[in-house]
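Re: that chain you flagged

S.,

Sorry for the slow reply, it's been a week of failed gels. I finally had a moment to sit down with the sequence you sent. For the record, here it is as I used it:
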Amino acid sequence: MLLEGKTVLVTGASAGIGRAVAIGCAQHGADVALNFARDVDGAQAAVAEIEKLGRRALAIQGDVADPETATDFVAQAADKLGRVDVFVNNAGICPFHAFLDMPVETFERTMRVNLHGAYFMVQAAANQMVKQGDGGAIIAMSSISALVGGEYQTHYTPTKAGLHSLMQSVAIALGKHGIRCNSLFPGTILTDINKDDLADAEKRRYMEGRVPLGRLGQPEDLVGPTVFLASDLARYVTGASLLVDGGAYVNLQ
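Prediction finished late last night. Pasting the structure tokens below so you have them in one place:
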């Protein structure tokens, strides 16, 4: 129960990593507010799972690309759950596309959701934490793609590198308020974001073969690292990053 008495906010939490992290934080004692864009049924199911654990939960719909979504999400969460102790920026998209004919709207939408949305969400959460006056933790779900490239991810990888850079800078800006800011770098995790890309059995076998631990990641693999960074066990960790990739990044052979 590492998060007993804490309130955690998670964006993009109706499915995938966000859903797993939201439920995982509740398993460690947290009350949870979930942001989601479209999947009402998924969000309600996640809330039900959290309430089964005896924790409070609410789902608030909103497109993170709209800056007003950030202030609304944080305000509603603070009002209904009492405070904001931990903020997990997870919402993101990756519509795979070739570089030379990348549509302007695909590029700009990816930037607005992944990077601009994160900026305003983190800003809103930080302002609430500063108002409360007793610190907090902010965690950005970046990606191994912040460190390596991808042929069909030229619009996506810069946003993930930007998320990590944002965490480094806000760690400095918010340290004086006792707010810790860190990044997680998931490797290939089996979620809706890449299910079409990995539907190719040959590509999936290749990706699995690149991972020293012998498998692709599951959303639940991000729960432990998130809970650690959110908890007081990480009270002297800020501006840091942690790979959660089964060893893929270090496998050069």
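What I noticed first: The mean pLDDT is 96.

Talk soon,
D.
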